[in-house]
Fold this protein.
Amino acid sequence: MSPRFDAIGLVVSDMAASVSFYRRLGFAFPEGAEREPHTEAGLPGGVRLLLDTEDTVRSFHPQWQPPSGGGRSSLVLRCDTPGEVDAVYAELVGAGYHGELKPWDAFWGQRYALVLDPDGNGVDLFAPLAE
């Protein structure tokens, strides 16, 4: 037996808000996904991003409670250029999403920024700095 990585699953409090956020980042959720209790978007390499509402999770795990606090996980998205990091960050913050860390030139050689999705999950944006 050899399990293999297949998907990233997020529990969301508002499916429509989450689908809208991730669509802005290029995730291709199917039409009508914002009205469903579960949806998936395929990612390059065959991995999937799964979104489930809190009610969906409770339907098979009645004692489940959403975790308190934030910063437990983060999706990390590579941009093509440092300028794209700045542009994507500005677009998301301009659309009303919370910019947790403005773009900066990190000491490890990347342009880096952090935006929070509607549930407070981190979405890191990065691109290698020019050499």
